[in-house]
Amino acid sequence: MKDVASLIKSKRIEKGFSLSSFAKELNVNYAKLYNLESGTVRNPSSAILYRICSKLEIDYNYILQLLGHDILTLNKEMLYRNNSSLFANS
Fold this sequence. Notes:
The protein is an all-alpha fold. It has a single domain (2-87), classed as Orthogonal Bundle (434 Repressor (Amino-terminal Domain)). Helix content is 71%, strand content 0%. The protein has seven helices and no strands. The N and C termini lie far apart (44 Å).
């Protein structure tokens, strides 16, 4: 999580956001964002991570890989969930 935390913090600073302005931009509690950037949050919400990645132009899949997720499996699960009717037996 430390790699993810430092990447998010450095990209936020690079983009010119203060911690409080970025928290407001994301509509996220300041303390939650602070804890995420300091690496104390072990399992950050995927929705928050996705919003952060979108705003900071970070590849979301890259972040998931840094967190140890198997991207291929996650993508297959999402494809199945979003198209479950295609996989149903007729």
